[in-house]
Design a protein that fits this description.
With about 675 residues, the protein is an alpha/beta fold. The strands form seven sheets. It has an eight-stranded parallel β-barrel with strand order 3-4-5-8-9-10-11-12, surrounded by seven helices. α2 packs parallel to α3 and α4 packs parallel to α7. Bound molecules: flavin-adenine dinucleotide, NADP nicotinamide-adenine-dinucleotide phosphate and iron/sulfur cluster.
């Protein structure tokens, strides 16, 4: 248990009175209203996985969260590939996790999520109410028989029984997202004509029976959370009165908390990407809260304590679930309680190191916190040999290196030629939908000061300067230079680099060709075709653009009318030389949102382009062997980057050793995830 709060901590906690009020469940009590939502990390299946999971969850328990929900665990083999819990031997393995969390703070509760992915199980044995293949499923599921359904219910109960045996404080049953239980609920995935299909009372029978069986298995003094789909985001999804009826039936069957979930995985609506406004969906939870008696949990894009406090204060929920924010900063809750909000490493909702990794079979971590899920292997321990270190370049790589090295006790001086820290993040933060990048810069600004890094901005560093100051180590984090394609007419006045385009240094015409359709090409297209408020900052704009109706809540939550996107006044061609689909290289879980937005704005995406020349007439190309002229006023070059190593090369020539990180080390396929990860690991060792 942590020490008693000091007067200043009590004052900070009182800034968030709702967040820090305990919740009494009768047989148990949660110390505050923040829970860490369920996330699959990949550690579940890793060698030494339980040991690593124990360290990962214990760090979050020490960080102040009230309750933790584990990543999903399968009750049987057809429920999904990966971590299963149904036997005493398996329960024994989980003990390391529950004991570590309770040892870290006996007041913190940890619940196991029971996950049955139904038709999304990725195994030919997968099961569902009907043999209908999901748009995103790998196999056509086997329609369950009456006996098969009874077995699934028994397996849920057995899994819960084993969770209790393993020392968990409760379980969460996921009844949403297009997984088994939700496919019984929704008419279009449940074509059965027996007592498990057809009328609504039949379709909700499985959900109710599972909850009843689990409650019977674990007795009354065990937390039982049901994750309910409050908005399926699917045409033909649940109507609001069905959501209400289900919630009430689940409560009657023995759940003592409901957690609202939004969106089936196959639904074409972003619900957690960075373009989604903070706390966008909580009003729906608020409506549900009015018709049930048990505490209700809300989630999605709640990433800072004030957002959580506002959600709770307006009565939208009894608890808030923060999942990815706990990857980004395990100490988030403690920092809020102690008035250290400026030190919170905020989740920017990029999905780059978490969900994108999950969906491509890689271990999860976090772009802004590479220690996430690496707690046993990456630690920033005090150094026994403090050094004077010069870091040149205050982009993500230089910032990460400096803060970690200084935390370990090194004396760090960080230089940048610019007047502010951030490097290319200062460009990224200007893209509509990427406003959260400001938070990362705020975090680094705070941590540089707190860790005592000497910051020297507006300082173009050269060899003589480094020689004169006699540092023990020099780290070169000078980033990149935009690539300039070797093309006749590339110096024509209508050609603009992405740097100048984003900084607004050059006028952009009405007809624009963007050369290069990587992450930056897409961001530039977003910037120059965007009008009005950013959807990430305005719920009305966001809901219009994605056809969501939060107010009337039609069946499934979607309006059924085409999303209303303001078409661009510019005519824009986004081009690449590859013949792959344009945007294929974007993030697995977010790329489709960017493609969809630009297509709705009328941006032309052209692949397989051979660039020939640029002149007064426009951009001359060859496509499929045929010459084609794009009569554009502006050509914006987003053709990738090369490392900026001028200073490094000069140091080498002068015989001064230096280390390279970030874009200066390798520009190809560089992103902030790699820059921060590489720099943090180097700083952990230096
Ligand atoms: P940089 O950020 O380029 O920083 C290098 C710094 O070194 C600069 O501040 C520069 O002024 C300084 N410098 C150079 N030479 C000297 C010198 N001699 N003396 C002093 N200072 C010097 N990545 C993602 O992961 N996700 C995204 O969503 C994303 N979006 C992006 C959007 C845009 C519009 C852009 C442009 C980039 C985006 N990126 C994104 C890429 C990401 O910003 C880069 O990968 C990252 O900034 C590279 O970090 P770095 O520290 O290596 O270099
Ligand atoms: P990129 O993703 O590598 O894209 C570069 C583009 O330039 C490609 O479309 C490439 O396509 C084209 N290209 C390369 N060489 C060329 C040449 N000689 N002539 C003409 N075209 C050329 O790089 P980026 O867009 O500059 O982004 C930099 C990094 O920032 C990326 O690694 C990216 O991950 C990161 N970033 C991420 C996001 C995000 O949302 N996650 C957003 C922005 C940036 P062809 O070769 O087919 O023409
Ligand atoms: Fe958040 Fe991005 Fe980290 Fe995932 S990788 S937790 S979305 S900051």
């Amino acid at each position: 248990m942590g020490p008693a709060a000091s007067p200043s901590q009590a004052a900070s906690a009182s800034r968030y009175p709702h967040v820090f009020s305990p919740l009494d469940l009768g047989f148990t009590r949660l110390k505050n209203r923040v829970l860490m939502g369920s996330m699959h990390t990949g550690l579940e299946e890793a060698e030494d996985g339980f040991h690593r999971l124990a360290a990962y969850y214990a760090e979050r328990a020490r960080g102040g969260v009230g309750m933790i929900i584990t990543g999903g665990v399968y009750p049987n083999r057809e429920a999904g590939r990966g971590s299963k819990l149904s036997t005493p031997a398996e329960a024994e393995q989980h003990r390391e996790v529950t004991e570590a969390v309770h040892a870290a703070d006996p007041e913190v509760k940890i619940c196991l999520q029971i996950l049955h992915t139904g038709p999304l199980a990725g195994t030919p044995d997968c099961v569902a109410p009907s043999a209908l293949k999901s748009r995103i499923g790998r196999y056509t599921p086997n329609a369950l028989t009456e006996e098969g359904i009874a077995q699934q219910i028994a397996d849920f109960a057995q899994c819960a029984r084993m969770a209790q045996k393993a020392g968990y404080d409760g379980v969460e049953i996921i009844g949403s997202a297009g997984y088994l239980i939700s496919t019984f609920l929704v008419q279009k995935t449940n074509l059965r004509t027996d007592r498990w299909g057809g009328p609504w009372e039949n379709r909700m029978r499985l959900a109710v029976e599972v909850v009843r069986a689990v409650r019977e298995a674990v007795g009354p003094d065990f937390i039982l959370i049901f994750r309910i789909s409050a908005m399926d985001m699917l045409e033909g999804g649940l109507a609001w009165d069905e959501v209400v009826g289900l919630a009430q039936a689940i409560e009657a069957a023995g759940a003592n908390m409901l957690s609202t979930h939004f969106c089936w995985h196959e639904a074409p609506v972003p619900t957690i990407a960075t373009m989604v406004p903070r706390a966008a969906f909580t009003s729906v939870t608020g409506r549900l809260r009015q018709v049930v008696g048990v505490p209700v949990i809300t989630s999605n894009r709640i990433n800072m304590p004030q957002v959580a406090e506002d959600v709770l204060a307006r009565g939208d929920a009894d608890l808030v679930s923060m999942a990815r924010p706990m990857l980004a900063d395990p100490e988030l809750v403690n920092k809020a309680r102690e008035g250290r909000e400026d030190e919170i490493n905020t989740c920017i909702a990029c999905n780059q190191a978490c969900l994108d990794h999950t969906f491509t079979g890689r271990a999860v971590s976090c772009l802004v916190n590479p220690r996430a899920c690496n707690e046993t292997t990456l630690n920033y321990l005090p150094t026994s040999q403090a050094k004077r270190i010069a870091v040149v370049g205050a982009g993500p790589a230089g910032l990460a290196f400096s803060t970690v090295a200084a935390q370990r006790g090194h004396q760090v001086t960080l230089f940048d030629a610019a007047s502010e820290i951030g490097g290319q993040f200062n460009l990224a933060k200007q893209i509509p939908g990427k406003e959260e990048f400001h938070e990362t810069l705020r975090y680094f600004r705070t941590m540089l000061a707190k860790r005592g890094v000497t910051l020297r901005l507006q300082t173009q560093v050269d060899v003589a300067m480094l020689q004169a100051e006699g540092f023990d180590e020099v780290v070169i984090a000078t980033g990149i230079m935009p690539r300039t394609p070797d093309l006749p007419g590339i110096d024509h006045p209508k050609v603009v680099s992405y740097l100048d385009a984003i900084r607004g240094r050059k006028a952009i015409g009405q007809r624009v060709a963007i050369l290069g359709a990587g992450g930056i090409g897409f961001d530039v297209a977003e910037l120059i075709t965007h009008t009005g408020a950013s959807g990430a900052l305005d719920l009305q704009v966001f809901s219009r653009e994605w056809g969501i109706d939060f107010q009337n809540h039609p069946r499934g939550g979607v309006t059924g009318v085409l999303p209303q996107v303001t078409p661009s006044e510019r005519e824009v061609w986004l081009m690449q030389r590859k013949t792959d689909a344009v945007g294929k290289s974007l993030g697995r879980t977010t790329g489709w949102t960017h493609r969809t937005v630009l297509q709705r704005r009328g941006v032309h995406m052209v692949a397989g382009v051979e660039y020939l020349k640029i002149d007064d007439a426009g951009l001359h190309t060859r496509i499929d062997g045929e010459p084609r002229l794009f009569p554009v006023d502006t050509v914006i070059v987003c053709a990738g980057q090369t490392p900026l190593r001028t200073l490094f090369d000069q140091l080498q020539a002068a015989g001064l050793p230096a280390r390279l990180v970030g874009g200066a080390y390798e520009a190809a396929e560089l992103d902030a995830k790699r820059a921060i990860d590489q720099a943090s690991r180097l700083a952990a060792e230096v």
